[in-house]
Write a structure and sequence with these properties.
Distance between the termini: 36 Å
Shape: elongated
Number of helices: 11
CATH superfamily of the largest domain: Hypothetical protein, domain 2
Radius of gyration: 19 Å
Number of strands: 0
Structural class: mainly alpha
Strand content: under 5%
Helix content: 55-70%
CATH class of the largest domain: Mainly Alpha
Length: 224
C-alpha cells in the first residue's frame, strides 16, 4: 500500500466514522484500565455486562480493594480467566493506591509496571484515556495491517512501529479505533467481507472475497 493509498484508506474510514469510540464502557481512566484488564480473551460485550454491575459499586482502586478478592470475583465470574484477572486487578489497585495516590499514571513505564499491563494495554490507556497518538496492536489490528499491506510485520511491535511510521499524523489519534472496528466487523479473520468493504480499492489483499450467492448463503446456513 503506497502513500496515496494510505491517505485514501484513512480518509474513507474517517468519513464513515468521524469520532470513533471504544466499545468498552467507562467514564474514568481507572474504569477504562479495569475494563481493558478484564477484556483479555473476552468480548467487549461480556466485559460491559460485568462492569455495569461492578462500577456502580466499586469504580476506584480503593473501592475495589474494599470489595476484597472474593467480592471482586463475584462480579466478574462471567468473564473468561476471571480468577487470574481478579488477582491482577486487585494487585494493580493496591499499587495505584500505594504509589500513585489512587490515580492512573500517564507514562508508559509506570503503566507497564502494573500487574497484567503490557504494551498493548498501556497503548490503549495512553490513547483512549489521555489522548496520545498511540496504536495498540491487538489481533484485529495485526491482521488488518498485514492483510491490507498497510504495515506488514511478524510481531505486534513490528506492526505498531510500521503503523506509527506510515499512518499520516492527522489520522494517528483515531487510527487504533478505526482499525480495530474494521477488523472486528469487516476485515474478519476467516472470510473478510471484501464485497462490503469501503477501503477495498486501496487494499493489497487478493483475491478479494466475492459477495456470497444465494447458494453460498444456503450452504453456510445448513452448516450452522
Amino acid at each position: 500500500m503506497n502513500k496515496a493509498a494510505i491517505e485514501a484508506f484513512f480518509a474513507t474510514l474517517q468519513a464513515a466514522n468521524p469520532n470513533p469510540k471504544s466499545e468498552l464502557e467507562f467514564s474514568t481512566p481507572f474504569e477504562l484500565l479495569a475494563a481493558v484488564l478484564l477484556s483479555a480473551q473476552a468480548t467487549d460485550a461480556g466485559v460491559n455486562k460485568a462492569t455495569r454491575k461492578l462500577f456502580p459499586v466499586a469504580n476506584t482502586p480503593q473501592k475495589i480493594l474494599d470489595l476484597g478478592l472474593d467480592g471482586l470475583t463475584d462480579y466478574i465470574k462471567t468473564i473468561g480467566l476471571y480468577r487470574s484477572k481478579a488477582t491482577h486487578l486487585m494487585d494493580t489497585c493496591r499499587i495505584l493506591v500505594e504509589r500513585h495516590g489512587g490515580e492512573v499514571p500517564r507514562t508508559r513505564e509506570e503503566l507497564e509496571a502494573l500487574p497484567g499491563v503490557g504494551r498493548k494495554t498501556a497503548n490503549v490507556i495512553l490513547n483512549v484515556a489521555f489522548g496520545e497518538p498511540t496504536i495498540a496492536v491487538d489481533t484485529h489490528i495485526f491482521r488488518v495491517a498485514n492483510r491490507t499491506g498497510l504495515a506488514p510485520g511478524k510481531t505486534p511491535l513490528e506492526v505498531e512501529q510500521g503503523l506509527l511510521k506510515r499512518v499520516p499524523e492527522k489520522y494517528r489519534q483515531n487510527a487504533h479505533h478505526w482499525l480495530v472496528l474494521h477488523g472486528r466487523y469487516v476485515c474478519v479473520a476467516r472470510t473478510p467481507r471484501c464485497w462490503e468493504c469501503a477501503v477495498a480499492p486501496w487494499c493489497d489483499f487478493e483475491p478479494k472475497t466475492p459477495a456470497p450467492t444465494s447458494k453460498t448463503k444456503a450452504t453456510r446456513k445448513a452448516k450452522n
